[in-house]
Amino acid sequence: MAFKSQTFKDPLLSRVVAKISRYIRATKLGVAYFRWAHRGERSFECPICGYHGPFVTLSAVYGERLYAECPQCGALERHRLLSLVLDDVAKGFSFQGKAILHFAPEAFFRRRFMALTKNYRTSDLVMMGVDMRADLSDLAIDDSSVDVLFASYILQYIKDDLLAMREIRRVLRPGGFSVLPVTIVSDETVEYPEPNLDESGGHVRAPGMDYFDRFCEIFSRVDLYRSSSYSERFQTYVYEDRSQWPTKEMPLRRPSVGVRHEEIVPICWR
């Protein structure tokens, strides 16, 4: 299949090749060629950039991930779901002028937030071009000073995640909320004795459906938005075979049945 993302044993090489491929594919000529090369395949719609057509199949050490990436903007299943969730939340919450703190900022959401408010800050421990270096477990931020805290797929890297959640709740203003999705890859959460560097550079757990109970311990209300809440034309599911888990690279993950898995976004209210 043309324009399929390739994975190499060296994770750094894989990331570099993926970025180069994504850059080439996202050009007008690249998008046009991708549509032509994949003509006749299943088509989808990206709610972030408006692209219509086939999506990119990604390859990983454990197999293919079908219909994963928008060829035009690079949004993955999780990003498309997050965009749809933000649209729904905006029906009852005005983002205009609000104080927004965005961790590990994705470019397309950064642009979206910057268009909504001048009180927008970004943070990451290693990423260049952010406004601040802040640790979610120890935020040097005043109490009740943030309306929206966006930390997408970060808590699976933090050992003391409950401490991080308490810090997030502390800095939120009453009526504010945090967006705190994690990758659900198990029926029950599995805690690792040490970070697994083969899992996206250092996961400390494999979150399960029970992980959302932790949010309920800290926040006053938790709303869960699922892939099944939205039209399949946006393709917000993860299509991958998890029955072969655990693997050498992921020895503590448990096998899961099926090849289509829901993504879930928790909106955690102060």
Describe this entry's structure for a reader.
The structure is a single chain. The chain is of the alpha/beta class. The protein has a domain of 157 residues: Rossmann fold (3-Layer(aba) Sandwich). Helix content is 24%, strand content 24%. The chain is built from six helices and 14 strands. The chain has a six-stranded mixed β-sheet, with helices on both faces. It has a two-stranded antiparallel ribbon with strand order 1-2. Strands 3-4 form a two-stranded antiparallel sheet. It is globular. The mean pLDDT is 91.
Q: Concise description?
A:
With 270 residues, the chain is α/β, with parallel strands linked by helices. The longest helix has 15 residues, at 11-25.
Give the SSE order as H and E letters.
Answer: HHEEEEHEHEEHEEEHEEEE
- Look at the structure and give the CATH class of the domain at 78-229 and 265-269: Alpha Beta
Alpha-carbon Rg, integer: 19 Å
> What's the name of the CATH homologous superfamily of the domain at 78-229 and 265-269?
Vaccinia Virus protein VP39
What is the CATH fold-level name of the domain at 78-229 and 265-269?
Rossmann fold
Largest sheet: 6 strands, mixed
How many strand units?
Answer: 14
What fraction of residues sit in β-strands? 15-25%
Q: Report helical residue fraction.
A: 10-25%
Distance between the termini: 47 Å
Low-confidence stretches: none
Number of helices: 6
**Strand order across the biggest sheet?**
6-5-7-8-14-11
Shape: globular
Overall pLDDT score: 91
Structural class: alpha/beta
CATH architecture group name of the domain at 78-229 and 265-269: 3-Layer(aba) Sandwich
